[in-house]
């Protein structure tokens, strides 16, 4: 239970030396016991400890409880629970388990799975991780790990099966669109690949941000962003799903690079003895895109919510997906002399329009489930006509629906309105898989078979939030660019 809760917690890392000791807190000269040391840190840094310092009598009582055999962690966590739900006292083992995504010591295959209607579905794949290299795809259903069926197992149990020592291999059985596959994946450290990008279609860039682990992630993001004009990018999809947050300054740096207008980003409320409220403002001057679409879900928290809500409140982006987690408090991570860790809330974030989102979350502009069955997804799509052939070079909505279905089956990288050479390669792949003769166009037999296959795969899952964002991004990409790329790598606003 601790692990599930804590992995949503994100820290705002800062230099402890910048803080001042508040008046009225436990005097350092009175720090004698391990409990005194922890209490000193709580009263020195804790946002909600301000004005709620422990009396000498209560401190003595806590020390007596510990002297009588009660664990230090139990006593401290009891005190912290009265302050807020994000402050904890953790052993080295608990800290490693809960914050491995930020420490870079997570060993596994680089997948995120979610329990949907009794099946364990791959919902996210670490870019550059071993799972992606092995050919595992979003929407695949996990069946077994090293010959052990995962039916009825919890997410934590499956996670334990997938993790192991670096360099060891794990055998994974998958259901990929009705076909059972078995792949061997080598476990390794999963870290540093928190930011990545991919061109989905002409003019549309996808940027995944899995965590704000350090300022290096901000630098990587801004490098990607600075190169968008060279690709003549019109619309961007930023994926913050499953991003539990991390370094707040990294999120703020990314926002500063994105936003076109100079605007207030966030108010950070610190203790009065640590500076009080700080208002952070963007410099403006970001690339004028036709559309920015941010994917969020119930796992999007803290610094990731900050990025999402600032983009929403600025009016420069739309949020697509599910309501976010609801964590607008930031923490310091402090070490004690005995090697334990104190996670203590030190600040509260407030967005310009949305305000404080603690326990409320951020409601997206377009609310939709992240993963839906293929059948449900196609219900809202136009049907694929199958009463006449689609000829090479033909354009229109029917071709779009054909190529969309081929893309969903993994036979095409991009959908298109034109049945060109690339689209026909997808048609030929489908014909080969279905045992049909290769044709020079999409004949009626092929179209009817494709419609039949989509019905057979109706129970499999598709990334609906991404698809909904793509629909909007395509519309934005059809509009003229709002900037003019220059040969020297810079750009100017369009006339």
Mean pLDDT: 87
The number of distinct helices, counting runs of at least 4 residues, comes to 15
- Looking at the structure, what is the overall shape? globular
The second-level CATH architecture of the largest domain is Alpha-Beta Complex
CATH superfamily of the largest domain: 2-enoyl-CoA Hydratase, Chain A, domain 1
Low-confidence stretches: 1-23, 101-105
CA gyration radius, whole angstroms: 26 Å
Query: What is the CATH topology assignment of the largest domain?
Result: 2-enoyl-CoA Hydratase, Chain A, domain 1
Major beta sheet summary: 6 strands, antiparallel
Helix % is: 25-40%
Q: How many strands? A: 23
Q: Per DSSP, what share of the residues sits in E-state strands of 2 or more residues?
A: 15-25%
Top-tier CATH class of the largest domain: Alpha Beta
Number of domains: 4
């Amino acid at each position: 239970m601790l692990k599930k809760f804590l992995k949503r917690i994100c820290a705002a890392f800062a230099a402890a030396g910048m803080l001042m000791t508040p008046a009225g807190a436990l005097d350092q000269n009175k720090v004698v016991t391990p409990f005194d040391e922890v209490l000193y840190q709580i009263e020195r840094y804790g946002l909600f400890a301000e004005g709620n310092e422990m009396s000498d009598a209560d401190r003595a009582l806590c020390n007596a409880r510990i002297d009588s055999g009660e664990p230090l962690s139990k006593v401290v966590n009891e005190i912290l629970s009265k302050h807020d739900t994000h402050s904890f006292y953790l052993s080295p083992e608990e800290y490693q388990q809960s914050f491995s995504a930020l420490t870079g010591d997570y060993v596994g295959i680089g997948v995120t799975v979610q329990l949907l209607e009794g099946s364990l579905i791959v919902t996210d794949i670490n870019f550059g991780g071993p799972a992606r290299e092995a050919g595992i795809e979003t929407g695949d259903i996990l069946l077994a790990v090293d010959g052990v069926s995962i039916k009825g197992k919890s997410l934590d149990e499956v996670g334990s099966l997938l993790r192991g020592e670096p360099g060891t291999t794990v055998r994974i059985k998958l259901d990929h669109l009705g076909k059972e596959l078995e792949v061997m994946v080598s476990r390794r450290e999963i870290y540093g690949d928190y930011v990545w990008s991919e061109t989905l279609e002409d003019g549309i860039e996808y940027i995944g941000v899995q965590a704000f682990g350090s300022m290096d992630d901000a630098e990587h993001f801004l490098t990607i962003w600075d190169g968008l004009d060279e690709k003549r990018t019109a619309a961007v999809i930023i994926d913050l799903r499953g991003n539990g947050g991390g370094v707040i300054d990294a999120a703020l740096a990314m926002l500063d690079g994105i936003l076109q207008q100079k605007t207030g980003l966030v108010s950070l409320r610190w203790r009065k003895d640590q500076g009080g409220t700080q208002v952070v403002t963007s410099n403006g001057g970001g690339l004028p895109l036709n559309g920015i679409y941010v994917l969020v879900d119930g796992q999007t928290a803290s610094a990731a919510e900050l990025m999402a809500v600032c983009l929403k409140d600025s009016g420069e982006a739309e949020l697509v997906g599910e309501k976010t987690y609801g964590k607008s408090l930031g923490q310091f991570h402090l070490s004690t002399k005995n090697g334990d860790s104190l996670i203590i809330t030190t600040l509260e974030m407030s967005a310009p329009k949305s305000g404080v989102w603690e326990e409320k979350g951020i409601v997206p502009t377009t609310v939709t489930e992240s993963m839906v069955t293929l059948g449900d997804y196609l219900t809202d799509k136009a049907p694929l006509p199958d009463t006449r052939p689609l000829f090479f070079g033909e354009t229109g909505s029917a071709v779009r629906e054909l190529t969309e279905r081929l893309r969903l089956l993994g036979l095409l990288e991009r959908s298109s309105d034109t049945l060109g050479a690339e689209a026909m390669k997808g048609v030929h792949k489908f014909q080969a898989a279905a045992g049909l003769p290769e044709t020079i166009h999409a004949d009626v037999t092929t179209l009817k078979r494709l419609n039949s296959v989509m019905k057979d795969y109706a129970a499999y899952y598709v990334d609906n939030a991404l698809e909904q964002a793509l629909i909007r991004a395509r519309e934005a990409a059809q509009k003229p660019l709002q900037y003019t790329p220059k040969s020297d790598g810079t750009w100017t606003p369009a006339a």
